[in-house]
Model the fold of this input.
Amino acid sequence: MPRNPRYYTAEFLKADAAARQRAYRARRVEKDPEFYKKNYYKRYPFDQPLFVARARLRQKNILQATPPWADRKELIEFYKNCPDGHHVDHIVPLKGENVCGLHVIENLQYLPAAENIRKSNSFEEVPQTPALLDGPQQQESQQVHS
Done:
């Protein structure tokens, strides 16, 4: 019986490996929330150029996603007020697969660290009900007809 060639493509293997790695990291953080923080400092001396490059790329992405009208002081305060054990998360990720969000206060939330790591840069679209879509417009039209 011939095997499906889709399973041998580089994209499939890469995506499969990334999914398994994300699942492993999420399980690891659930067992020991401080695991990555402890091991970060062990790896840093060996991978310093990589760490610096990633940090600079992240800073560049945030700057590109911050519109000129965003209140930077309010963003800084939001980060400063983050509770212990939580991360500041972008509801709509800055670099998502299908959608890219803005770095504005309306797109930020506090999430527990393990949940934020598990979420990664995914975006769960909230289903919209007809009541929410028609709400104010329907009420206005009913008032006009009354």
